[in-house]
From TrEMBL:
This is Cytochrome P450. GO terms for molecular function: heme binding; iron ion binding; monooxygenase activity; oxidoreductase activity, acting on paired donors, with incorporation or reduction of molecular oxygen. Residues 1-23 are annotated as: Disordered. Belongs to the cytochrome P450 family.
Length: 403
């Protein structure tokens, strides 16, 4: 009997950059009362199971107690209604008709600044881009002073806002100081950026998220929490993705040429593969509200109601049984099975799939295509760290230079 050889990707290029030494294999296992799901099929099943599974991230902290939960923490009918209402702000048609020209102009402004200076920190440029684009969609366009990108960056870098109990007296003191600093930064963000936007939209509603929230009776603090959600899930994630995509494209000349020569679908294919390999949000939490049965290979796992689950997106995205040959290598032309998207599970799946997925790829593509048309080189290897609060990698001090 002659078997056909397994199809191979015609262009294997660079290794994964953001593994942080992780050596997990796809599978399902129970560790200390927490279920770890590390296969594509298991993670996708749980993400799509809105009947037996709920969001697992805690909202019991000093900021959101007794408040209406942000959309990312909602479930059931409440979440479906909210997602349906905001979906119109993120459709491809809305992005093209309302935001594409703005993204083009903003990109050109940043590129001109880079050309005049001769070099720049790409992590700063990408943060400015992602903040201004997302702010336009959310409605954060009436700030009292410039620099919202810096304020958000400071707010989300190292602040302990979870109110976790520490063990020792010194730990509790450090936690209290950290929380106080974080709350001061949040208060500044609200005063300078959020409150002026709310006031402007109370006087004149617009087609953006804040106007929608006001129409549903959200108060100022609830809107602040939503804005922080969009800052974390939209602005920061896009910033990091642009950084890691540029890193790959600048180091791999053949990949860069293919990207620059490609049409939009081809460019998006390349970006989706980079995102599959380097998912910004590496971990998701879920909680079983009813018993869940998971099939993993030849094994069946029964997860009881009340159990917590950690969904390992990075390992699931590298499940060779689905992704194919050499899953930890960048390969834009993989022959993926029907139903498996190029970015795999990097945007999530099911009811909580990222609503801004198309916007994130579109703005990244516009900026990267213009950036990489320059004779650009990396001055030194950027700093790569992992933010345990956001469960995502961070790329900093990414200095690029116009040759």
């Amino acid at each position: 009997m002659i078997t056909e050889p397994t199809p191979r990707c015609p262009m294997h290029t660079a290794d994964q950059k953001t593994s942080f030494g992780a050596d997990h294999q796809p599978g399902v296992e129970l560790q200390r009362d927490v279920w770890y799901l590390r296969t594509y099929a298991a993670v996708k099943q749980v993400l799509r199971d809105s009947e037996h599974v709920r969001q697992g991230a805690t909202t019991e902290n000093v900021l959101v107690t007794r408040l209406r939960p942000a959309v990312i923490f909602q479930d059931g009918e409440e979440h479906r209604e909210q997602r349906t209402a905001i979906a119109r702000f993120f459709t491809p048609k809305t992005v093209h008709d309302k935001h594409h020209a703005f993204i083009d102009l903003l990109t050109e402004r940043l590129i001109v600044r880079l050309q005049r200076a001769g070099q720049a920190d790409l992590s700063a440029l990408s943060m400015e881009l992602s903040v201004e684009v997302a702010a336009r969609v959310v409605g954060l366009t009436d700030s009292l002073k410039p620099g919202m990108d810096r304020r958000i960056d400071e707010l989300l870098s190292g602040s302990d806002l979870n109110g976790e109990q520490r063990v020792g007296t010194l730990d509790r003191l450090r936690s209290a100081v950290s929380q106080s600093k974080g709350l001061l930064k949040m208060s500044n963000f609200y005063r300078v950026d959020v409150r002026p936007a709310i006031q402007a939209r109370r006087n004149k509603p617009q087609e953006d998220v804040i106007s929608h929230l006001l129409s549903k009776g959200y108060n100022d603090l609830e809107i602040l929490v939503e804005c922080l959600t969009y800052a974390t899930a939209g602005m920061v994630t896009t910033r990091e993705f642009i950084g890691v995509a540029a890193w790959h494209l600048l180091e791999q000349e053949e990949l860069r040429r293919q990207y620059l020569a490609g049409d939009r679908p081809e460019r998006h294919r390349i970006l989706h593969e980079i995102l599959r390999l380097e998912p910004v949000a590496s971990t998701l939490w879920r909680k079983a509200i009813e018993d869940v049965t998971i099939e993993s290979g030849s094994q069946t796992h029964h997860i009881p109601a009340g159990a917590r689950m950690i969904l390992d997106i990075r390992t699931a995205n590298a499940d060779a049984s689905v992704i194919g040959d050499k899953p930890l290598i960048l390969c834009p032309h993989r022959a993926l099975p029907s139903g498996v998207q190029g970015q795999a599970l990097s945007f999530g799946d099911g009811a909580h799939r990222c609503p801004g997925a198309f916007l994130a790829i579109h703005e990244s593509d516009v900026f990267l295509h213009r950036l990489l048309s320059l004779p650009l080189r990396i001055v030194s290897t950027p700093e790569l760290t992992f933010n345990t609060l956001l469960m995502s990698y961070e790329i900093r001090d990414f200095i690029v230079e116009v040759a």
